Amino acid sequence: MHGPPGAGKTCAQDLLLNNPPTTHTTNSTPIARPAVKATRVSVDNETMKWEKVNRDGLLERLASDLKEAASHLMKEIPQPDEISDGASPDSNAKMPAIFNESFSIDDGVIEEIMNIIQCSEVQLNLSDHWLYIIDSGGQPAYQELLPLFARAASLNIITLDLSKHLDDKLDFQYRIGGKTFSCSSNLKYSNHEFFLSAVSSAVILKPIDVPKVMKLFSNPEISSHPMNFVLGTHYDLITEDKLKEMNKELMSSLKPDVENYVVPNVRGESIIFPVNTLVPEDEGRMKAGQDLCQSIANCGGTSLKLSVPIRWFAFELCLQKVAEKKSRSFLLIDEVISAGAIGSRAA
To answer: Which domains does the chain have, with CATH numbers?
Structure first.
């Protein structure tokens, strides 16, 4: 999710997650920050409810999945009356394998997961359908990073402020501590130019070089390129005629080789999904958020179903703990390798 500064990216996330509207000016995305700062979201497709997955929620999900895996494994172990003569009825023979393989990361994280399993039945409030929202900075420098994240089966949400004319030059600024600082005077783009740059950048694609994943792209319903979703904010500040004019102008500027990678709202008529991200709770905020979630869910070919090892998530939690001990929000590559090496020796 990206767009010019002040276009409404943070407010759009609040709407999707059914949070109260943001009433204060937020700081710009900082220069010194983790390379990827993604918000993990659990998606309930029946109620169109999106919920942020915090650390506790992730631990509960891991505990549940591990418990289920152990249950399946136990079913594969021969019962005493099924064991042939001379075979040992030691049911622990296979059990350590799953624990050793999955739990070779960090004793603290593993202990937390095991405590959740042992204390009581794991109560899951989150679905196992997850997506990740990467909130990019709005300044032009971040455009160069887009090809790193725009890949097959991903959705590039381009956030545009509909109250600004498409061809008006935007003053790109940084907001820090309530103060505003202008970028270089040479860094001025219009909404229209930002849109075309974002769509073009997303087309620069490095394919996913994972055999099992590449086989999935033989399915015609899965796009081999990222799709672009144009989210128009401040819908309440423009007229329907103005919206039609903006749709027409954006659609006419798309080249034939990229127009198929922009999600249509009404095919042949519009590509902008307009919304008021600041709609109050007593004026249908929940419904507006659900409608936007549904529009995003309807984007075909923007998801893949993959099985991810539990130990990967455990390692992620381990790295977070290492960073906290160093009072930083990021780690150097050598520190990550070292943390992984400790887990390998422990196994």
So the answer is: 9-53+128-297 (3.40.50), 311-346 (no CATH)
